[in-house]
């Protein structure tokens, strides 16, 4: 009887904490109503590496680690380590916030349980599905409900005290932080090898893209253009041809080439997809070689977190999922 009462208390505590945190968090952000279909789709998202994958796009959704926090770690007297990871969930189409994804992991068994927490304005059916998960999934895994209740209650306490849901400057996170963009004068390489400013590109234009499967350049059509107005800081990397780096004294290397974008815009590196702001000196990016109509490696010789600020930024969506800015391969967000 005592255990049943405790389970009921934990269940209601978790439900109340969830409702409070959803009202508080989404009152501060531009949000949209989550449907039960979206909730089910978000639950199926698989995170390859919970400790490293803090920001990524999957199935029409953006997952961003809540307040950039590491996992909550719980070490119970049964010797089992349990963790809770929190992600904010946004729609890819318009970057509006839908809710939270809480992922529970049992380090001993490897069991992973996702809980999609709807925003305050979500459909009633979405809330019903979440409550069902608490009841029928949460109670079957020892320790899950108590860890989830603690995390949500802790975050709610932080919000009430003004400590969470804030940037370093003390204001709520802005929607613009989730945009991936270039300045208006960023040159887009067209299919014929010429270029024009990204601000002049229109939907339907054919640009030079990159096919990840064949690892080759290919014409690709622009399917969508995003434009955002505000205050945006651009990060930059300087690139030099790997051939120039190994040239002897008879050849003089050219001046490094600058690629700039918002820090979170993904680029293609020798080790795969990476946000521009995470690229380090010594890494290799890829650029268009007109002589061979292929890509060649360029090594990063310098990075800078803030090159300049601009008021308007642009981003393209393409059929191939990649295009060239200043002849350097960049990826769709």
From TrEMBL:
SMART domains: HintN. Keywords: Signal. GO terms for biological process: intein-mediated protein splicing. Residues 1-27 form the signal peptide. It comes from the Bacteria. This is Hint domain-containing protein. Residues 179-289 form the Hint domain. PROSITE patterns: INTEIN_N_TER. It comes from Spirosoma pollinicola.
